[in-house]
Amino acid sequence: MPKMKTKSGAKKRFTISPSGRIKRSHAFKRHILTKKDTKTKRQLRGVTEVHASDKAMVRSMLPYA
């Protein structure tokens, strides 16, 4: 079997913690921030865990993580 390829977009977007949890950052925080409320921008900081229903898909995109 040849080596499996990692999806380039997935390796830029997800990180896997030592315990096996998949972390992601929030969307809607890149541009057009002037019209967004300060509270909204503050809540979009930091990272969250990928939802349980999406974990299998992310794992398949990152075969060696």
UniProtKB/TrEMBL annotation:
Matches recorded under InterPro entries: Ribosomal_bL35 (IPR001706), Ribosomal_bL35-like (IPR021137), Ribosomal_bL35_CS (IPR018265), Ribosomal_bL35_sf (IPR037229)
Biased composition (Basic residues): 1-14
Gene3D superfamilies, per the entry: 4.10.410.60
Chain intervals for the UniProt region annotation (Disordered): 1-24
Listed Pfam families: Ribosomal_L35p
GO CC field: cytosolic large ribosomal subunit
TM annotation in the entry: none
Top-level taxon in the UniProt lineage: Bacteria
Keywords: Ribonucleoprotein, Ribosomal protein
Biological process terms in GO annotation: translation
GO molecular function terms attached to this record: structural constituent of ribosome
Alphabetical list of PANTHER family matching this protein: 54S RIBOSOMAL PROTEIN BL35M (PTHR33343), LARGE RIBOSOMAL SUBUNIT PROTEIN BL35M (PTHR33343:SF1)
Family: Belongs to the bacterial ribosomal protein bL35 family.
Name of the protein described by the UniProt record: Large ribosomal subunit protein bL35
